[in-house]
Amino acid sequence: MTRVDLALHVLDSLPMPVAYFDREGVCRLCNPSAAGLFRRSREAVLGLHLEVLAEDNPQLLSLARWVLGGQGRATRMLRFPLDGGTVAVLLSAIPHAEEGELVGVLLTGVDATQATEALREARREIADHKRGLAEALWALDIIEEPMLALPAELRGIEFAAVYRSASRVSRVGGDFYDIIELAPYSYAVLIGDVSGKGTEAAPVTSTMKQGVRAFASEGYPPSAVFLKLNRGLVKSLPTEIFVTATLLLFDARSGEIVWANAGHPPGIAVVADGTTLLEPTGPVLGVLENASYTDGRMELPFGGYLLLYTDGVVEARRDGAFFGEKRLLQVVSSLARSTTQQVVDAVYAEVSVFTASRFDDDIAMLALARSRDGGE
Predict the structure, then answer these.
(1) Cβ neighbours around 92 below 10 Å, total
(2) Alpha carbon distance 105, 67 (integer Å)
(3) Which parts of the chain sit beneath pLDDT 70?
(4) Per-residue model confidence (pLDDT) at position 113
(5) Neighbours of 94 (CB within 10 A)
(6) d(C-alpha 255, C-alpha 302), whole Å
(7) How high is the pLDDT of residue 279?
(8) What is the pLDDT of residue 249?
(9) Residue 75 · residue 92 · CB < 8 Å
(10) What is the phi/psi pair of residue 78, to 5°?
(11) What is the 3-state secondary structure of the chain?
(12) What pLDDT was estimated at residue 64?
């Protein structure tokens, strides 16, 4: 057996999915585990373009494009349809360079379904307890609900939010958002998703919101805030827990937005001439100790709006098909000049119709726009 044959044999025996795509996004190598995620045989996967393989999984396409675009390694939790259900995979996209030139991307992942199911089973067992548990859950909801509270109004911005928890144990799941006034007409806006729910998510959510408030108030840009939070989360979180988040600093007077995205679904800015995506600028929080983050910049004009959301929106399913980023873009593009409340209500209605109001994951959305009291 040659070295190449031995390497391929080892690759085929790995339980984890492994696939390699060239610079153009064509699959050149994959093992049976990876082919199974694409619901094809390995022979059928080889030679196919990533856009074909990921047509039902926009998050995967976004992850690979991030790396192929030269932005560095990225990691994200993705869900793949499998045997009438889904399998959760913590997927890493690793750039492959030769002589300093990017030539491809290696996708490899870890099956997180068993860990997720263990957490769900633990929650179900806790929910079976009677009086003592009922009192504990009541207390937990009292603690968690303020984490989703937003101010009644803020100078210079119009905003609206929608939240729906998929958890039967607690009204509040792992999704969270916040708007923090840093100075008159200056705001830190945060949305995120903790991989745990209820009792696992509550302290992490609190840490995120308090950390953002503290670091942003000191003048740190979003990338530096995430860098500081990540260092603390890597040391304190269990290995099965991580956080995705988008943080932006919003100047309501100028419309300037400075943002960083830690492995979170891309926010969508809708303006008169089209849409702009706030793609990931770094990996998820709490996993990689040496993770780095960068900032993006854009300007939001009057009449435009920004929609931030969690993965429960694009990963809402019907008969194994995802609602998806493409469908979401079609919906939000049709809502130009709408109020922020109309935007979140319309998107939520579309997702509800698509899923027949059966949600497998939490859903959170936060829409923002400039109001005229912010000045020109």
Answers:
(1) 19
(2) 7
(3) 1-8, 10, 71, 82-85, 111-149, 166-173, 196-200, 374-376
(4) 54
(5) 15
(6) 8
(7) 94
(8) 97
(9) yes
(10) -125, 155
(11) CCHHHHHHHHHHHCCCCEEEEECCCEEEEECHHHHHHCCCCHHHHCCCEHHHHCCCCHHHHHHHHHHHCCCCCEEEEEEEEECCEEEEEEEEEEEEEECCEEEEEEEEEEECHHHHHHHHHHHHHHHHCCHHHHHHHHHHHHHHHHHHCCCCCECCEEEEEEEECCCCCCCCCCEEEEEEEEECCEEEEEEEEECCCCCCHHHHHHHHHHHHHHHHHCCCCHHHHHHHHHHHHHHHCCCCCCEEEEEEEEECCCCEEEEEEECCCCEEEEECCEEEEECCCECCECCCCCCCCCCEEEECCCCCEEEEECHHHHCCEECCEECHHHHHHHHHHCCCCCCHHHHHHHHHHHHHHHHCCCCCCCEEEEEEEECHHHCC
(12) 76
Show the tokens assigned to 352. Answer: 């509800």
- Token look-up 């009438």 returns 84
Place of tokens 């199911």: 117
User: Is residue 285 a contact partner of residue 195, using CB atoms and an 8 Å limit?
Assistant: no
